[in-house]
């Protein structure tokens, strides 16, 4: 039925409330808090559970494109997934696997089997190009890929190596060709070889990662969103129970590609968590007629479809259609117009329940049972989530105002929220603000808690349920030689909601080509096909416009800055919506006829490019600021500095010191790398292979190489070298076992026993010379080599190199390094001087400072004087005993009476003693516990000391090895290094005319020879004339005559 005919039967009054059943109410479950167990495995705790309780219930039904039916019960699903897990385990360990498959049942079996083998799956759509597959394999660091024949051919074209390559689907001849030529493994052959062997269950943590999805981004490559057994396997129970309204014996159909997270939502976890069956339509593309045919012939009870499909369905003749078992409809992926909801309800009697979620989350909000359904609204927060509308600072906005959809995650983080983007902590941090996770969508919330979608905060394009990042399309377009600049935006579409539209600035060589109509159409078709080859086909621009220039942002960058519709202004945002088509001729407002812009002349006449650029720049600025700048409050714009809590103030003295320590600007000219760009353009020469390589892929490969990754050729070469080395060692070992023998038996005898006699070894016929040359052991004559033949030569340099800082024009860094070495030498000398001073002066003071007898007596009698002073003071004031004696007898009797304690006092004293004992015991226990906890600190201290000791030992060993590699010392005197010859910073000069001759080449060369032990080091005698000292020899017991005594 055409759209305008359906619109006539839309009720004028909106129904106030619609309920599906009475099994639960939203108000009773909205405050539910999900708490996952520590150990959880969806395959074992859910699939095997249903197999034991309702094993014969339908779990999976597949309808192929040729209308062939196949079905699996929960018992069959459990058994076959265990067998597939055992078959995959037989190939070896699989940690990460990329799965790119069409809608075949093996994809569902593979999901359950991967949970049993603890393999993390990276699903992808079959529309991915070879470059997309290469990026995903590299980024995921996958060791396995599951693919069909078409995907396998793309992988082989890239010549990528994976540990395991498994074919899941394809024609038998093509499968055999890939197996024989490229080493692929057939999944069906694995299952046949494995037989009925089943994998054993393994205990699994709920935090175990099971799936990672790639989500589109506005800048850069897609991000990886990981999910665990807890977030997807456990928390999608809410999705299946409260939003999909599933129960055992239900059959659910989700029209989604297996490569998207939506397929995991309501094709795997949500329906199977409720014991419901999953229906699969094998066609890669499902149209409206196919959907109506399936709903009329198959027992599908619940339907989940994107809004694009509902828009196509309401244009069919729904009056003549009858559904066999359909009772519940939901939609997600993009906003659903109110008119579509009302038109579907008027034709079928079923209300579409809209829901909202992301790849990073489970169901965040939706229309549930027991609540008023307001068409056009995404409903209320799902059980387990607390949703607020916040600004960019993470603060809640007033009711009715637009803001970011925020998931409250502190102090209690929702179990269904992802932990963070895999390997990208910075992008994870951008997604959180304050106590909220920001979804990236803008919406408003009314006073009843209903959420109304407004727009995306980024430039993500949602077309027919597909999330498309402008960056990917722009990057693909820029690779075409005709494209100089490009900007990709969303453009409104009645069927798809949005389509990709590209604004392109052509290179001068292609400007003339678009002047003719045929040339322009030919270039548009060429660009569309080119993008299809560079990225997924669904991302190609369906609308292309050629412009002379693109507007710039405030940062002067080309951006996808047209998130709004180019054809309309914000005030006419609803112009294209179907609501204007659904209204009757009486109620519809009169729309002014738009000026024609089909030809170039009309475009120039009716369009002002400057106004369009100014409007788009203002609109983009408003989106970045979170709304109109004038409408924002002061507290959202300005921030008051309350004091130096965050950033301490810097004193004037510190600032002055920092300015003094700042290096001079002239030293930048002495740096090795210049700041001036290469004047020779990149296009004037042929690029090398490394330059032609994709920079993002090159960066990934570099990062992986730092982690130890190697290519297949490098691994093969390493294996070949290892094999050759092993063969060489085996050959050498075999040569040593060779012996010359005596053949003292008849080789021509017919008796086999004689041949099997033990071979007698003999070396009598060998000469002594031959034995000395080891002929007996090796089998050949070898030359004897001297003992020091294998000794390593010394690491002696030809000429000693001076320090670079001693050159006439050193760099700033080299000169500072030389100054630092000089400072270390001075500090060492100063330390030695202080040590000598301590041992010579402080330990042995001079006569003036030495203690005398008088000072000794004063020091020893100092305490005695204090005792005498105290005694005098006591005599003046009187002792304590005299004071007690002066007390009266009455006081003494009173004190004696008080000494007799009552029973109450004795009981209190016992209690105090017990309490004191308890406190002492607690203190002792606390001290023991502290000693136990302190063992870790002791252990860390010992480990740190051990590391320091090992470092010192390593340093001494290296010094010893370096010393052994140097020439031997020629004399008993060691060469003493002269003082460093350096200049201060102000003495440096960059002019050769100002340099004065310094030093002595002959002396420097002689010192160099002594330093390297090529010349014996000699030390002249001091205080001796001409450097020579006569040796006086005197015979023992010899005296001159005049020295003898009489």
TrEMBL record:
One record GO biological process: acyl-CoA metabolic process
Listed Basic and acidic residues bias regions: 717-735
Annotated keywords: ATP-binding, Ligase, Lipid metabolism, Magnesium, Metal-binding, Mitochondrion, Nucleotide-binding, Nucleus, Ribosome biogenesis
Pfam family for this entry, one: AMP-binding_C
Gene Ontology molecular function terms on file: ATP binding; fatty-acyl-CoA synthase activity; medium-chain fatty acid-CoA ligase activity; metal ion binding
Residue ranges annotated for the AMP-binding enzyme C-terminal domain, each copy included: 472-553
Cell compartments where the protein resides: Mitochondrion; Nucleus, Nucleolus; Nucleus, Nucleoplasm
Family: Belongs to the ATP-dependent AMP-binding enzyme family.
Name this protein carries in UniProt: Ribosome biogenesis protein NOP53
Species of provenance: Tigriopus californicus
């Amino acid at each position: 039925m055409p759209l305008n005919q359906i619109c006539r039967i839309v009720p004028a009054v909106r129904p106030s409330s619609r309920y599906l059943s009475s099994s639960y109410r939203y108000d009773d479950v909205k405050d539910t808090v999900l708490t996952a167990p520590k150990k959880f495995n969806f395959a074992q705790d859910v699939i095997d559970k249903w197999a034991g309780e309702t094993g014969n219930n339908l779990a999976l039904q597949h309808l192929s494109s040729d209308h062939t039916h196949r079905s699996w019960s929960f018992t069959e699903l459990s058994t076959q997934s265990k067998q597939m897990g055992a078959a995959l385990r037989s190939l070896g360990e699989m940690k990460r696997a990329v799965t790119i498959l069409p809608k075949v049942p093996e994809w569902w079996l593979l999901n359950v089997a991967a949970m049993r083998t603890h393999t993390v799956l990276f699903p992808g759509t079959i529309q991915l190009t070879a470059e997309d597959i290469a990026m995903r394999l590299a980024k995921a660091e996958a060791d396995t890929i599951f693919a069909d024949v078409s995907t396998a051919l793309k992988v082989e074209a890239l010549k990528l190596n994976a540990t395991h390559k498994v074919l899941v689907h394809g024609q038998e001849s093509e499968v055999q060709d890939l197996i024989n030529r490229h080493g692929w493994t057939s999944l069906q052959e694995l299952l046949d070889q494995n037989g009925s062997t089943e994998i054993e269950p393994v205990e699994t943590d709920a935090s175990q990662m099971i799936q990672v999805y790639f989500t589109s981004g506005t800048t850069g490559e897609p991000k990886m969103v990981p999910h665990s057994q807890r977030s997807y396997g456990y928390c999608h129970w809410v999705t299946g129970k409260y939003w999909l309204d599933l129960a055992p014996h239900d059959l659910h159909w989700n029209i989604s590609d297996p490569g998207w997270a939506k397929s995991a939502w309501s094709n795997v976890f949500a329906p199977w968590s409720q014991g419901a069956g999953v229906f699969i339509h094998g066609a890669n593309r499902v149209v409206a007629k196919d959907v109506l045919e399936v709903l009329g012939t198959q027992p599908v009870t619940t339907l989940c479809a994107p809004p694009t499909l509902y828009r196509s369905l309401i244009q069919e003749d729904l009056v003549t259609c009858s559904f066999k078992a359909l009772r519940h409809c939901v939609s997600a992926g993009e906003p659903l117009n109110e008119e579509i909801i009302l038109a579907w309800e008027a034709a079928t009697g079923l209300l579409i329940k809209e829901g909202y979620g992301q790849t990073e989350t489970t169901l965040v909000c939706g229309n549930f049972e027991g609540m008023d359904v307001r068409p056009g609204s995404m409903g209320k927060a799902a059980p387990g989530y607390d949703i607020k509308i916040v600004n960019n600072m993470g603060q809640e906005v007033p009711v009715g105002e637009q803001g970011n959809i925020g998931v409250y995650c502190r102090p209690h983080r929702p179990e269904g929220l992802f932990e963070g983007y895999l390997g990208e902590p910075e992008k994870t941090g951008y997604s959180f603000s304050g106590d909220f996770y920001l979804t990236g969508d803008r919406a408003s919330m009314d006073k009843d808690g209903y959420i109304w979608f407004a727009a995306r905060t980024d430039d993500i394009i949602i077309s027919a349920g597909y999330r498309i990042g402008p960056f990917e399309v722009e990057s693909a377009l820029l690779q075409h030689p005709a494209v100089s600049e490009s900007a990709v935006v969303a453009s409104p579409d009645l069927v798809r909601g949005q389509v990709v539209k590209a604004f392109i600035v052509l290179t001068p060589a292609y400007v003339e080509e678009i002047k003719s109509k045929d040339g322009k159409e030919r270039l548009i078709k060429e660009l569309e096909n080119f993008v299809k080859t560079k990225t997924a086909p669904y991302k190609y621009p369906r609308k292309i416009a050629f412009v002379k220039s693109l507007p710039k942002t405030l940062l002067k960058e080309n951006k996808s800055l047209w998130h709004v519709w180019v054809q309309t202004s914000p005030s006419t945002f609803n112009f294209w919506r179907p609501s204007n088509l659904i209204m009757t001729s009486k109620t519809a407002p009169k729309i002014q006829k738009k000026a024609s812009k089909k030809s170039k002349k009309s475009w120039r006449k009716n369009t002002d490019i400057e106004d369009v650029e100014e409007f788009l720049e203002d609109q983009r600025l408003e989106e970045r600021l979170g709304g109109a700048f004038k409408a924002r409050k002061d507290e959202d714009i300005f921030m008051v500095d309350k004091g130096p809590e965050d950033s301490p103030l810097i004193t004037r003295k510190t600032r002055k010191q920092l300015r003094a320590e700042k290096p001079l600007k002239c030293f930048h000219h002495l740096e090795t790398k210049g700041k001036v760009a290469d004047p020779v353009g990149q296009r004037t020469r042929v690029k090398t292979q490394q330059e032609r390589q994709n920079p993002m892929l090159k960066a990934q490969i570099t990062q992986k190489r730092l982690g130890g990754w190697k290519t297949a050729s490098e691994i093969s070469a390493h294996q070949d070298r290892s094999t050759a080395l092993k063969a060489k060692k085996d050959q050498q070992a075999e040569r040593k076992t060779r012996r010359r023998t005596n053949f003292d038996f008849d080789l021509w005898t017919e008796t086999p026993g004689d041949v099997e006699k033990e071979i007698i070894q003999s070396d009598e016929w060998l000469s002594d010379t031959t034995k000395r040359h080891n002929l007996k052991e090796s089998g050949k004559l070898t030359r004897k080599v001297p003992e020091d033949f294998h000794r390593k030569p010394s690491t002696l340099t030809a000429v000693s190199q001076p320090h670079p800082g001693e050159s006439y024009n050193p760099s700033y860094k080299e000169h500072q390094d030389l100054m630092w070495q000089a400072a270390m030498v001075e500090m060492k000398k100063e330390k030695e001087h202080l040590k000598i001073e301590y041992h010579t002066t402080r330990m042995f003071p001079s006569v003036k400072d030495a203690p005398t007898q008088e000072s000794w007596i004063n020091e020893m009698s100092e305490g005695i004087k204090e005792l005498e002073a105290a005694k005098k003071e006591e005599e003046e004031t009187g002792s304590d005993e005299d004071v007690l004696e002066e007390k009266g007898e009455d006081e003494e009797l009173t004190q004696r009476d008080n000494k007799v304690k009552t029973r109450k006092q004795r009981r209190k004293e016992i209690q105090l003693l017990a309490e004191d004992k308890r406190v002492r015991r607690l203190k002792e226990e606390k001290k023991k516990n502290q000693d136990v906890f302190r063992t870790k600190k002791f252990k860390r201290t010992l480990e740190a000391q051990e590391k320091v000791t090992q470092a010192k030992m390593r340093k001494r060993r290296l010094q010893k090895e370096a010393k052994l590699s140097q020439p031997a010392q020629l004399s008993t005197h060691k060469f003493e290094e002269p003082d460093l010859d350096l200049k201060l910073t102000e003495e440096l000069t960059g002019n050769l005319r100002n340099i004065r001759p310094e030093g002595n080449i002959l002396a420097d060369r002689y010192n160099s020879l002594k330093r390297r032990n090529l010349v014996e080091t000699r030390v002249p005698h001091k205080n001796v004339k001409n450097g020579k000292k006569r040796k006086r020899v005197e015979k023992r017991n010899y005296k001159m005559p005049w020295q003898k005594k009489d």
